[in-house]
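FW: tagging you since you asked about this chain on Friday. Here's the raw sequence from the shared folder, copied in full. Didn't touch anything.
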Amino acid sequence: MVSYIIYFAIILLLPIYAQMKVKRTYKKYSKVRSTSGMTGAQVARTILDANGLYEVKVVESSGFLSDHYNPMTKIVALSSHNYHEASVAGSAIAAHEVGHAIQHKEAYSFLTLRHKLVPIANISSNASWIFVMIGIFASMSGMLLLGILLLAAGVVFQIVTLPVEFNASNRAMDQMVSYGIIRNEEERHAKKVLNAAALTYVAATAVAVLELLRLVLIYTGMSRDD
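HL: got it, structure written out here
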C-alpha cells in the first residue's frame, strides 16, 4: 500500500514540479534584458539566415510558451512575449526552436526517427488504455498485453524525444554564443532556461516509463495466476 502511495505521488508530483520549475525560471529570465537587444524574432531570423534557412518563416503565436517549430510548414512560431521582447529567456527559447529547424535541415537521425514515430505514437497512445482497462477489469491477460505493447510505442516516442530536445538546446547555446546574441553571465542564465524546459520532457518520460513498468508487473502477476 505504501509503495503505491509513493508511486502515485511520484507520477503526480514530478510533472507538476517540472512545470513549476520552467514557469519560475522563464518568469525570472524573461525580465532580464539581453545585452544584444535582439527580440526573439530577431534572434530566430539571425540564426536561421546564418545557417542558410532563408525559407523558414518566423511568426508570432498565441498562448503562453507556445513556441515550436513546424517541419511541415517550415515555420518557427514564438509566443508573443518571446517574439517581441529582448530577453535572455526569449533568446534562449527562440534559438532552441531554430535548433530544431537546423536539425531538420541536416536530417538529424533522432528527429527523423521521431517524425516517423508520430503517427504510430498518436494511434497507440489513444488506443492503448482501452485494451489496458479491459484487460485489468476483465482479467484478460492477452488484452492487457496488447495494451502494454501499444503503450510501449508511445514510451519509445517520448524516449526518442529526449535527445532531440537536448541536441536542440546544445545547438541553441552554440549559435547564440557564436553570433554574440548572449555574452558572459547570460550564457549561464540561458542554460538555466533551457535546462528547466528540458526537465518537462524528462519528467514526462519518467512518468511514462514508470507507468509502463507498473502495467508489466500487473501483467506478470496476472499471467502467473493463469
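FW: The longest helix spans residues 185-225.
HL: agreed, and The chain has one domain: 2-225.
FW: great, closing this out.
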